[in-house]
Amino acid sequence: MVIEEYDVHNLDCPDCGAKIEAEINNLEEVESANLDFINKHLTIEYIEKVDNPLKRLNAIASKIDPDVQFTLAGWEQERTKKKPWFIIVAILVLTFSLFLSSPFSLILGLIAYLIAGHRVIRKAVKEIASRQIFTENFLMTLATAGALYLGELIEASAVMILYEIGLYLESGAIAKSRKNLQALLALKPEKAHLKTENGVEDRKLNTIQKNQIILVYAGERIPLDGVVIKGESTVDTSTLTGEAIPVFVEPKSSVFAGFLNGSGILEIQVQNSEAESMVSRIIKLIENASAKKSDTEKFMTRFAKYYTPAVVLAAILVFVIPSLLGYAYKIWLQRALIFLVVSCPCALVISIPLTYYIGIGKSAKSGIIFKGSIYLDLLSRVKTLIFDKTGTLTTGELSIAEIKTVPDIDQEELKLSTWLCEWTSSHPFAKAVKKAFSYKFEPSKVDAFSEFPGKGILLVYNQDRYLCGSEVFLESFGFLNLLDAGDYSVVHTVKNDIYLGCISFVDELKPGMKEVLTELKQKGVKHLSVLSGDRIPKVEKVAKELGLDSFYAALTPESKLTKLEEIINSSQDMVAYCGDGLNDAPVLARADVGIAMGKIGAQASIETADVVLLNDKPEQLKNAFGISKETNKMVWQNIFLALSIKMLVMILGIAGLAQLWEAIIADVGVTLLVIFNSLRMMKNPDG
Question: Which segments constitute the HMA domain (predicted)?
Fold first, then answer.
């Protein structure tokens, strides 16, 4: 597969964009194509490399909208929006014609019509030549031509003027929403202060390589991911995580591009290039999110294909049937023209992706990454929510509660053996062991090492064989009758086939988790559960404290996946799984919606999960559900507004209570209405 990206220029009609996308998807060499009308961007996945694709793409665009042009992504082209001076001239000419008598008023009125409608008429002619009939330009030309036939020259000119004003306002509103969100996501500076042999030099980010040293002064944004090697400060992480409380950093602290430095000066060793930085990956996810369309978007795209022909057919019937029955055909022709004016589905085609786009951008500002509008849609319908325990429901910051050895085994030997096993692991148990004990580890003495995620570790060190892990893990090697650790989480240790004992850990519930789960229940989540590899008493205790509906304990990663399959197959509702995105990637991938929580620096969580919460606060989970429900509500609100207003105009038209110019105002107005209605979401920070 070959993925190519293109910028789209001069595309003002969302319905035309949908048609261009459909035509490109029909090409044999194209696996999939996604045209993002909001961001004016086209992404194509080719089956194999194609020579000179731009020529073919521009030929397709020209058939549907002659002004549209594709260029390679990043190619500089003047994008300054031209002022619609021709509309102002048309208004002046039309106004002047009102004060003149015939034939001068007719001549000036026709000139005003041609000035206002020259772009629409030119596009309509080209579209007809390309056999594109049910287009907005053709229908507008046909409707105003009908008005001219009826002698309504002023109305025909006014309709063209109002239509062009509407296009200009729509384009401006969409551009404003795009700029607002791009400003929200402007997370990093363009240059960094690079430390060199000659001092400090300002360099562009794409020229700075891994392991080079950069300086970040007080009040500046950190430009690249890295590790602090000198200096202390507090950093504001809210642009990425949504967390308002500053975080203290010192040497060995990890920092990410987009963090805002406080009062100190930091020397940072760069860990990722600009393209590989966390913020670049997040922005890329947001930009690509439009490719993963929701079911509602897909349905409305299909609906739009049939909506215009259906309304045009209705217009024909409104004209033909009364005329055949002997009614005045001119009256019914005028009423039929109103149907043509409202036959374009632009309000529907633009409002839905725009609403999802705003929802995704708003979420990102809060430290919540939705990897597609489909997941905003699915999360709003989730009724069953399953959790991992450690690090998700609990803090994941374990501390040692108890050390128990079997008779004749020295406690120091148990501590050293467990420490050796856990030295290279990143599991929360390992972090607690390494924090509590300190011994000398020599990598050259490692003869063999195997980690079984969620189970345990096998280590051969200096010719001694160690096993560390859960009760189930050690039982699989034949070690039975292990020490009882009560309600605690536990790691059992074996050295040279001799069971030494166990170390127990305590893990606290996350503050606020119970309140968040209660609120989710009140807002529609029916069933809460937990899948854990921990012991039954410990998991049962957590489930009772949090008021979960069920729990499943002593599970291996494989049995977690099996249990989730059982839950999904037995449920009629959407099932979401919330975990850390590291040790339970298969479970996250299998759920209808996989949610990774609190792993800003974890590449695995970014790649595996459908929704990524960039801090581990329970409120983030509540906000993710809130934004998804708000977005879904706004989508259906816009659909109702667009269809109901169009239907009302048609009814008023049939009844003779609406004029052509009133219909165009209503049609343009409903498009602007749904755009500004969607923009209201940006004012409510928490959904």
Answer: 2-68
